[in-house]
Amino acid sequence: MYTEGFRKQYDEQGFVIVMGLIDPSEFTPLQDACARAIDKSRKAEWMHRRTVGRQFPPYADEKDVDVWGVQHLMHPELGEIAFVKWYTGNRMAEVAKALLGCREEELQMELFNLLINPEQNNFALRWHRDDVSEKASEVEEKKALGVWHHGIQWNTALYRDACLYVVPGSHKTPRTPEQRKHSETMTPPDDPFDMPGAIQVVLEPGETVFYNSNILHCATYDSTVLRATLHATIGDTRGGATRARNVLQHGMDWIKGEGFRKTLEKIEDDKTRQRALLMYTNLLKMQEGVNAKDLGYSLSN
């Protein structure tokens, strides 16, 4: 299913669009689970949220705020097993192994969140790379881009999604002076197409875009357009601690409790359950190997 050309495009362009990663039997359960998670987040019954006014972690923890994302979809207290099954399922694992070039036992569980439309205000993210400061010099940028090889990130649309903009190939090269001008600012762009080389990524329901999270990218959120897009990362243990800050800055202490392991053990399919537990063990090992408090945050708001 996933050819060498598929991986070649991802490596060269920094992104690739894949269809068919949601089985028809999974589509409605995922939409329903999203609706419940969104409702809890908007009512401040689920406080692991991305809030308007904060582009990057840490997010505001006040109750009376507009919300553009739901964090930690696999958290046992959220209680939505459909998310756990899909994230650890066979289809996603096959793509992850193909793009990372790794073995199944090297897959590392990481983040699983949900991107949604805010209700009260339009919102946008500025041009950025997820784990490289906008103030990085050309030398610092080259160094940072050179070590980012051990994780994938993706958006899977449950409804049509035209929010993401990327600059193809920018995951490999430092910014040009003109690109730097458009990405050093702390504010979102008035027009994403002002960025040299920018394209808009449009996903139909069920389509997934995998992208290197250090590709130059930004996003716009229209409060009038329904959005429920699964947003996640998977790592490769060969990267060691290189992914620790990008993952742990979102607050992952909840994975240590017995509740999450018990959630994984509820997966009926033997192969998926075994994979999930192994991916979980690999995440724990990474978390135990670093002090999350010393890692700080990748980007500033």
From TrEMBL:
UniProt-annotated stretches for the region Disordered: 170-193
InterPro entries: Phytyl_CoA_dOase-like
Compositional bias annotation for Basic and acidic residues: 175-184
Official protein name in the record: Phytanoyl-CoA dioxygenase
Organism: Amanita muscaria (strain Koide BX008)
